[in-house]
Amino acid sequence: MTKITIAKGDGIGPEIMDATLKIILSAGAKIDIEEIKVGETVYLAGNTAGIAPESWDTIRRNKIFLKAPITTPQGGGYKSLNVTTRKFLGLYANVRPCMSLHPFVNTKHPDMDIVIIRENEEDLYAGIEHRQTDEVVQCLKLISRPGCEKIVRYAFEYAKQQGRKKVTCFTKDNIMKQTDGLFHSVFDEISKQYPDIENEHWIIDIGAAKLADTPELFDVLVMPNLYGDVLSDVAAQIAGSVGLAGSANIGEECAMFEAIHGSAPRRAGQNLANPSGLLQGAVMMLNHIGQTKVAERVHNAWLKTIEDGTHTYDIFRDQTSRLKVGTKEFALA
Amino acid sequence: MTKITIAKGDGIGPEIMDATLKIILSAGAKIDIEEIKVGETVYLAGNTAGIAPESWDTIRRNKIFLKAPITTPQGGGYKSLNVTTRKFLGLYANVRPCMSLHPFVNTKHPDMDIVIIRENEEDLYAGIEHRQTDEVVQCLKLISRPGCEKIVRYAFEYAKQQGRKKVTCFTKDNIMKQTDGLFHSVFDEISKQYPDIENEHWIIDIGAAKLADTPELFDVLVMPNLYGDVLSDVAAQIAGSVGLAGSANIGEECAMFEAIHGSAPRRAGQNLANPSGLLQGAVMMLNHIGQTKVAERVHNAWLKTIEDGTHTYDIFRDQTSRLKVGTKEFALA
Ligand SMILES: CC(C)[C@H](C(=O)O)[C@@H](O)C(=O)O
Ligand SMILES: CC(C)[C@H](C(=O)O)[C@@H](O)C(=O)O
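Predict the joint structure of the above. Result:
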């Protein structure tokens, strides 16, 4: 039994969390669940962090956190809980696999199978913004050598363990010679320690263009935080749907697993949402805690359901789908 | 006769410039050409700006500048001449049309016809970088209200003049609430003054995902500098090739026209390069200086050549191409 913390979040969060838990428990996951409240209700109760202080203790104690998407209220003062959690818990690596499920899910990129490893604590996400004059605002992009070293090493270790062949780095160091330049030079240094893994670097503009056009050229990718944010959404969407992708946020002590999409308040409570993203997060979680057999079982059942053409609205297409279902029916299947 | 400044640049630059000039002159362009030297040779002669001071006078005097791609030498101290020129001349708007030429050029996105209007002077391109400690470096992202106002207004005026229906704004203001928040709020303000043009805003992660997956959803897009840099390469590539796209850099006084791709030193001198990007830049230039008839003639001749299947190596595909040609033959055709 592994004790895990869960949070059902906002919008479609509770539905997809219930579906996900039902699936993994019936597949035999040995987990003990402790629930905490995060997100909109906590924000609106006056806590601008979106989480109560005791909840941090719970997360830290259990070390494993499965989190559904949350809604951050509009307007000043509210911090993004996603970002705060990553920083508070030192979750430096955000791992986002994007694989097409051709011919079962409609995609223009049938041979795509990549993993984006996104630096998860630094860059413009440091949240340091400042009004200089009435008319000029600034935001600080921070990059540190230890931060670069941790994420680049993680990417190569990941490639090694998963038997992947190549790690590609994207930066814009023709412009940001010091910040992105540091990331690039650390990449060059560390890649030398992995002679069996191919490595390459692209300036992000043309790199992103190639990724969007011919993603099958890539394998593992590593990049600073903001680039990883944008390009993991791009990659997930062109592989099939952002609704199908999960993500693992990995630190030295703790790890958080989630869907890459948001809480989609307009779809909430209608039994419409595709639980696949959070389910992928849960599969990564099961692998992380060593319950690899269960992870495999869940993954296969999920693949089978998708392959059978049992699709929720977001990936339903005439050519590939057979049965249009809601969140609950998808989970049952 | 309009006097223009040209620079042949580096790598494939001279070949595509010669091809471009030959084409537009034989189409009847009434231009008087003054050539300046920029790029690698100037850098390596010890001028870290890549351009001689007198050349600025030439550019300012003639106001219209057609520039081939240049190579910036590796290593510290060299400034990107592209970026310096944009700033020195106050070229605040970078206009990048990306249209697919289906079925003549291979693309997965046959109905794509968008224009990216990229802010061209601010953002992380301000070039303010700084080593804080031995292990921490930072770069400043600067956004100003006048800068946002100019570019957003330009985008709506452009849409109005070109009879386009919608302007879409991309920012990451859920994280960068002050900087990207300012851009977004200026967009909201100014869009109200154009009730006949539809407007919408997307967070850049999911916005970029939609752009890469279903570009036909978009029309005119406006965004901060770095996002525009990356997404214009993405858009040009999925429309057909970055080699087909040109760009106009527009200021109050001067304007510069170029290809969006680089100098591709490895392809230089081999009569391989596709001159289309610079040629598109030249067509925008001809429209800008009021020689719209000539612009149309060049554009139609170019379209016809592409439609005939006379393609350079980069867009040559078995399904769509008939004749594989070099730079010179393409220009002749
Ligand atoms: C919700 C937002 C703060 C978050 C991010 O920008 O990291 C999300 O887009 C993601 O990718 O997990
Ligand atoms: C060469 C480089 C400095 C330039 C930029 O980043 O703006 C280029 O990528 C472009 O898009 O024109």
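The two ends of chain B are 26 Å apart (CA to CA).
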